[in-house]
Amino acid sequence: MIMLTKIVRLIKSLPYIIGTKNYNVRVSVYARLIIKGKILVKSYLSISDFSFVEIRKDSFFIVDGFTTRPNTKINISNGGILTIGVNTYLESFSTILCKGKITIGNNVAIAQNVVIVDYNHSIGRKSGCYFRKIDEIGEIFIGNNVWIGTGAKILMNVTIGDGAIIGANSVVTKDVPQGKIYVGIPAKEINEIK
Ligand SMILES: CC(C)(COP(=O)(O)OP(=O)(O)OC[C@H]1O[C@@H](n2cnc3c(N)ncnc32)[C@H](O)[C@@H]1OP(=O)(O)O)[C@@H](O)C(=O)NCCC(=O)NCCS
Fold first, then answer.
1. What is the pLDDT of residue 122?
2. Mean pLDDT of successive 10-residue segments in the chain (194 residues)?
């Protein structure tokens, strides 16, 4: 029988990581953390197996205490700023794509297969080739203690208030007030937290 020991790299001295006192960055040997922009870690960042986190040139990742489960993807580019609070989790197969500004609060549970994306391709030009140009870049704000159900999609220019729940497979296109439960495509209120 072979015992596999999980090996984790402890990174303290990468030139582009600005850490506050006692910060801790753990990247699985099976994961990738590519930093061409900047990253500020206030307490901890833990990147699990087969996850891919890329901070491209001029972009910024500000993280307080954040854990990814295996097989997640985060891409910050185009000068984008992704800010994540403390005790927030990104479950497996979820993706965050940031070219503008995405802010995620404290104690946020992001389930499996969620996509959070703050940009659109050009629309309204019939002859246009959609994948060439990104010309709508926006913002997403997710408050504290939010639960985003599996398979949900969070699109640009929405705010999800504190304590809200987004049901499985929902597509959020408009603001969700705090403490409300939204489901469906497009996501609509079905309930509120009592
Ligand atoms: C939204 C959710 C939290 C339930 O909230 P709730 O207030 O208890 O809602 P209810 O179960 O009372 O359902 C109310 C109505 O919404 C519908 N509904 C519930 N969840 C829905 C969803 N994700 N999409 C569409 N409709 C949904 C129900 O079928 C019900 O419809 P009806 O009134 O026609 O019968 C739950 O359904 C859900 O989606 N959880 C996410 C699960 C998940 O991601 N787990 C992984 C965790 S890491």
1. 74
2. 42 54 83 90 94 94 96 97 98 98 98 97 69 83 98 98 98 98 98 92
How many whole angstroms from 161 Cα to the centroid of ligand 1?
18
Q: Considering the entire predicted model, what is its pTM?
A: 0.91
Index of the ligand 1 atom closest to the CA of residue 191: 7
User: Atom 39 (ligand 1): residue with closest C-alpha?
Assistant: 167
Q: Of the residues 72, 182, 190, which should be mutated to test ligand 1's pocket, given the most ligand atoms within 8 Å of the CB?
A: 190
Q: Is 121 a catalytic residue?
A: yes
**H/E/C letters for each residue in the chain?**
CCCCCCCEEEECCCCCEEECCCCEEEEECCCEEEECCEEEEEEEEEECCCCEEEECCCCEEEEEEEEECCCCEEEECCCCEEEECCCEEECCCCEEEECCEEEECCCCEECCCCEEECEEECCCCCCCCCCCCEEEECEEEECCCCEECCCCEECCCEEECCCCEECCCCEECCCECCCEEEECCCCEEEEECC
Q: Give me the pLDDT at residue 133, please.
A: 72
* 183 Cα: distance to centroid of ligand 1 (angstroms): 7
